[in-house]
Amino acid sequence: MNILVINCGSSSLKYQLINMNNEEVIAKGLVERIGMEGSVVKHRTTGKEEVLIEEPMKDHKKALELVLNALVDSNYGAIKSMDEIGAVGHRVVHGGEKFANSVLIDDEVMEALNECIDLAPLHNPPNIMGIEACKALMPNTPMVGVFDTAFHQTIPMANYIYPLPYELYEKYGIRKYGFHGTSHKYVSLKAAEILNKDIEKINVITCHLGNGASVCAIQGGKSVDTSMGFTPLEGLAMGTRSGNIDPAIIPFIMEKENLTVDEVNELLNKKSGVLGISGISSDFRDLEEAAAEGHERAQLALDVFCNRVKKYIGAYVTMMCHVDALVFTAGIGENSVFVRKKICDGLECIGIEIDEELNDIRGKEAIVSKDTSPVAILVIPTNEELMIARDTLEIINK
């Protein structure tokens, strides 16, 4: 069976068509600038050259129409007809407390997704637009929603409740939800497979380190805590997000800088993190290069980022008492030799010992811990699309 995986942003759309008989990607692509001038589909069928389809796209429905046409094109397509797509798996950022697992999408699910918009006003609306567009174009094809937050619904209440008046949780659902769940789930399962261990019998700490970054404690295959919270702003210092700060700083800045709520929200989400500290970039490649040339604030930004990750690892080791594996994934986790080394330095006291020679790899699966390390350290490229496809297949088979 072929499953189409869709990941919609506000003006972009990523997709993969995966043959679930062998879990191979047979086509993939990216749509950019939906609803804007210069909109384009970048499509590649495995074994063929990439093609660019430049055509106006007023909305996600038009974008998906072009994607589906590309998939069945006689010259650069991957399938002969739409009948070869058995199901569609949609990435949905926020499922609130309503969804602890992936679900078959029906009218009741759509209603619940709309109710979650307040919790993810930037992410859920385009996710919903993608689903509605697919339903209009493929009305007889089953659709499955796979939620970034679902994996974290196993977190105990003592770990997800905030020390605020309890009525705010009851009224507005203010609690830790966590994100990157699909990635954390995939790499933890992959780590168990690599180590030839039963996921239900091991404890894993996964570090999804990209422009958005989070750490997750996984006990027996279940998330028991994670660094992101009510929104993806909590936790680590990130590319442009502040992560954890003293809450009193916010009204202080608003008063001193005469900022509105929207302006301070933009400052915390888009102008802070390593960009804010360094003053030069949110790209860790730029920061590493600048630090190597003596740029003090670039080095400071890297130090802050790595120290925050290290704190969460230490906290999760003590919380779970014993850890079998530490996993690095996503853009920085998979590719930055420097960041992995800096995070692990000093963690020997809790059984985490990195091997510098083994660690000198980028973008591929590897064990990078010393033979003497009680905790296995792994680099595992994430594959959220495959995890979405697997969940989709499991749901429709039921």
Short summary of the structure?
Its cofactor is Mg(2+); Mn(2+). The protein has helices at 60-71, 107-115, 124-137, 157-160, 166-172, 181-194, 249-257, 261-270, 273-278, 284-292, 296-320, 330-335, 337-344, 384-397; strands at 2-8, 12-19, 24-32, 40-45, 51-54, 85-92, 103-104, 143-147, 203-209, 213-219, 222-226, 325-329, 366-367, 376-379.
Label this structure with key terms:
single chain, 398 residues, alpha/beta, Nucleotidyltransferase, domain 5, eight-stranded mixed sheet, six-stranded mixed sheet, 14 strands
What does this structure look like?
With 398 residues, the protein is an alpha/beta fold. It folds into two domains: 2-147, 2-Layer Sandwich (Nucleotidyltransferase, domain 5), CATH 3.30.420; 199-384, 2-Layer Sandwich (Nucleotidyltransferase, domain 5). 37% of the residues lie in helices and 20% in strands. It contains 14 helices and 14 strands. It has helices spanning 60-71, 107-115, 124-137, 157-160, 166-172, 181-194, 249-257, 261-270, 273-278, 284-292, 296-320, 330-335, 337-344, 384-397; strands at residues 2-8, 12-19, 24-32, 40-45, 51-54, 85-92, 103-104, 143-147, 203-209, 213-219, 222-226, 325-329, 366-367, 376-379. The strands form two sheets. Strands 5-4-3-2-1-6-8-7 form an eight-stranded mixed sheet, with helices on both faces. Strands 11-10-9-12-14-13 form a six-stranded mixed sheet, with helices on both faces. The longest helix is centred in the last third of the chain and has 25 residues, at 296-320. The two termini are 15 Å apart. The relative contact order is 0.11. Keywords: ATP-binding, Cytoplasm, Kinase, Magnesium, Metal-binding, Nucleotide-binding, Transferase. It is found in: Cytoplasm. It comes from Keratinibaculum paraultunense. Its cofactor is Mg(2+); Mn(2+).
